[in-house]
Amino acid sequence: MKKLGMILLCLVVLTACSTVYSDNEEKIMRLAVATPEERSLTKGLYKFADIVEKETGGSIKVEVYPNGVLGGDREVLEGLQLGFFQGTTISTGPIAQFAERFAVFDLPFLFPNAEVAYEFLDGPIGHELLDELQGQGVVGINYWENGFRHLTNNRREIHSVDDIQGLKVRTLENELHIDMWSQLGANPTPMAFTELFAGLQQGVVDGQENPAGNVTTTNFYEVQDYLTITNHIYNASVFMISEIFWNDLSDKEKDIVIQAAEEAKDYQRALNQQEELDAFEFLSNAGMTITDLSPEEATKFYEKVQPVYEKYTSRIGEEFVNQILEEIQY
Questions:
Q1: What Cα–Cα distance (Å) separates residue 197 from each residue in 129, 187, 189, 220, 285?
Q2: Residue stretches of the chain with pLDDT short of 50
Q3: Do 135 and 225 share a domain, yes or no?
Q4: Residue 5's pLDDT is what?
Q5: Does 185 fall in a domain?
């Protein structure tokens, strides 16, 4: 029944997207996202919707579809390219599947903290990468925040890289992430986010890695006993618009969309920072064992994943990666 509902909804969306808008006709902007309503990314979309509808005087009506009701990241990305949906925010990992240089953001332990990430993402190189998306049927507007990813599992407390040996860890459907967890000694298992809770509950995987906010809002703590603060990847989340829809907007509407996205970005990032602090407190109170890696063990994690840097630097571009590492001052 759920699949039938999704098919019917996609048919409705497809029909709507084939419409050619007249100058005075209300435009419908459907934003699809995999995260729950309670998550900061989804709240950022609602904030964006409020600003756009107010500033356009209703010429653009924005509808938000959270909880993966229109599909996981891959389905939403494909729907965006085809014009089924008009906007979304998705982590850089899935985007790297069709815009390879975005894989640089998934290099493990690239950003030491969020402030350094913001400065880089909002700077020239971040904007240069967004420009590359236009050839893929989407318009990259700016970078929101999914946050630093951490490891959870229900088998044992993780104090060291040796403790990861043999863990079945759900990863994104992304080759670099799979290689990283293989280097760390885990058995990586790609799985859609919308299927993850069931996978953890049924023991298909022992653990997963996500920002702390996702662990709370998707109730992973109900089926996971341990969380290790690894900070292994900082996840920026790109706010994107379908190029088909973008080309239908007037210059004034485009300006409003860009400004709304900037306001929503600042709002969402601040919300996400607080969300992570609240999440750690909530998860601890809910009974999860939370472990912070020692500086010595964190260094061992970094050393263990160096083959990932060697492999993907040649793919992404050695000069480009070195430029980024130099700018981040490693």
A1: 33, 18, 14, 6, 20
A2: 1-8, 11-12, 15-20
A3: no
A4: 41
A5: yes
